[in-house]
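Field: sequence (string)
Field: structure_tokens (string)

Example rows 1 and 2, in order.
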Amino acid sequence: MYRYLLFDADETLFDFLRAEKTALNLAFGDCGIPFKEDYVPIYSEMNSKLWKRLERKEITKPQLLAMRFANFYEAMGFTGDPDLMRTAYQKRLGEQCFLLPGAFDVIKKLSEDHRIYLITNGLKTTQSNRLERSGLLPYLSGVFISEEVGYEKPDRKYFEKVKESIPGFKEEEALIIGDSLTSDILGGNNAGIKTVWFNPGGKVNNTKAEPYRIIKAIEDIYAIVTSS
């Protein structure tokens, strides 16, 4: 039986894209810059590329935080201090808590017979604020935020810290559930833990990550954990 279920946060349980768009809109207002919908995909792509570089250890998290709005301001030709936008955005992002359809019910139900953990590379303040608003905390046995752990997914050291922190943890009784091949699935491969790739959009796997199972709806996890 899979006793330990390690869920990724953003785009697995949380609707991060909606939160990102909302936070950007509000942060632009805070900084007195007119907001346009077209800005969202541009920023989102630039930000995503920086997080991928972080996963590959090409940059550090402080560098990522400093670079993303500096790069965005430069690309868009904005004047002013990008650090003001960075601060405003981070505050606003922590205020946004949108769960993906079915996520709350799945976590609540699974917590009856399993120990549920959250594993995320997000920032401590942001993720903590969103979790408090989500209603999920009563059903979680623990939360592992990379900023506190000291390593980022998919680093094996991140998962070693997670293993050490969970009483009685056994790899063969655990599953990692996440949407990111390069973070969650590859991380699980590195750590010797089976993984479930949450892939509602039917993306093609062009990476070296090897998921144990693939699901398109979060409710599909029931069949996997009950068949073990």
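Row 2 begins here:
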Amino acid sequence: MAKASHPDFDIKKASAGLGLFAKRAFKKGEELLEYTGEHISHEEADLRGGLYLFTLSDDIIIDGKGRENIGRYLNHSCDPNTEAVIEDDERIYFEAIKDIAIGDELTFDYGEEYVSDIIAAKKCKCDVCMG
């Protein structure tokens, strides 16, 4: 399956695998992109497992494993430039929390649980932790 393409973002190699990079500048507060995928129950998410599961509400998880979901390419950072916003338990989008320059990798903080359960075992590879 081919990688998704987008006029505002490039998907290319980053320190933690593939990453999402800005093709244009973004201002702090700007909505960047939506996290998309199949809406499934928490029970189904537990059965499927996977790295691209994003909790939308108490009832719904978004399974963003499809390559058309460019949000899956945002890597973790301990000093992120975006944050995830959950809107009315209906959608998740990413918003710039800093100005983002052309060529910058878009990152967000995956959260304490994910970092301790998944990232810590392999060591964090964000710019802050890698020096």
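free_text_note (row 2): The first strand starts at residue 9 and ends at 14.
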